[in-house]
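Thread amino acids onto this structure.
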């Protein structure tokens, strides 16, 4: 099927793109006879092809995404659901084939693939009924997802990337199957810039690991520098593999992210 999204490939439509030399077997109806009359050389006209994409939206549904607790606007999981709803709507409205998946231990909460505006409400209902739970090993989950792919296309991963085994091998597995990957890295404001406080006990909501720490100014400064280094390393890794990397704080309005940030980076057109 033809969609509404302009492809980098050349095909058949009404919008002229370029010329190329005629080769045996080309459709003679595409010859530009005016050019042939002037140059006495045959050229074939090329046109933009409108492409039917597959769009897959993978949401990290581990417990660490359900932070800050509650369903406030800064909650990472709720932010990811709203963002996935917006991106899914764009895909469905453009005639693309859209799939939404929740990445968790079972890796079995999936909506789609579906196409067309008539499926928008069903997609939103699926997202509204979703929740975050348990531990997610991103590498193994993404590898399993790559195996099930029948028609790779554009894939967005929405995650805080808090995974003990990492995520790089999972992204490589997706790319090896032909996916064009966009990584939207979600963190809440208090994870980016924690405030100075007293001695506290931190408990990992996924592994239940505990550690005691003093949140003084020196510790906060070290934390911020390590966070910046971590995000820089992710950006460098993604740039080397041709992956779109978009670090996001959940206090950024999700509609501004879609309409401005993602457009500016060329991820959404």
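Threaded sequence (269 positions):
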């Amino acid at each position: 099927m033809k969609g509404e999204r302009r492809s980098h490939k050349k095909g058949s439509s009404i919008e002229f793109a370029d010329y190329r030399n005629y080769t045996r077997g080309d459709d003679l109806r595409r010859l530009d006879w005016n050019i042939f009359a002037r140059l006495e050389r045959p050229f074939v006209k090329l046109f933009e092809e409108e492409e039917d994409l597959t769009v897959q939206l993978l949401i990290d549904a581990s417990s660490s995404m359900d932070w800050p607790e509650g369903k406030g606007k800064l909650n990472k999981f709720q932010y990811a659901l709203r963002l996935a709803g917006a991106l899914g709507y764009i895909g469905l409205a453009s005639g693309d084939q859209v799939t939404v998946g929740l990445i968790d231990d079972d890796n079995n909460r999936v909506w789609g693939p579906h196409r067309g505006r008539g499926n928008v409400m069903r997609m939103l209902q699926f997202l509204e009924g979703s929740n975050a739970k348990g531990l997610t090993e991103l590498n193994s989950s993404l590898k399993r997802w790559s195996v099930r792919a029948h028609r790779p296309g554009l894939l967005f991963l929405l995650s805080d990337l808090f995974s003990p085994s990492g995520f790089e091998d999972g992204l490589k597995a997706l790319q090896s199957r032909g996916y064009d990957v966009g990584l939207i890295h979600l963190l809440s404001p208090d994870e980016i810039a924690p405030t100075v406080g007293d001695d506290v006990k931190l408990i990992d909501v996924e592994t239940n690991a505990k550690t005691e720490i003093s949140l003084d100014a020196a510790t906060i400064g070290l934390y911020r520098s390590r966070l910046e280094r971590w995000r820089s390393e992710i950006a460098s890794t993604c740039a080397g593999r041709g992956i779109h990397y978009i670090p996001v704080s959940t206090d950024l309005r999700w509609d501004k992210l879609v309409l401005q940030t993602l457009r500016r980076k060329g991820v959404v057109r």
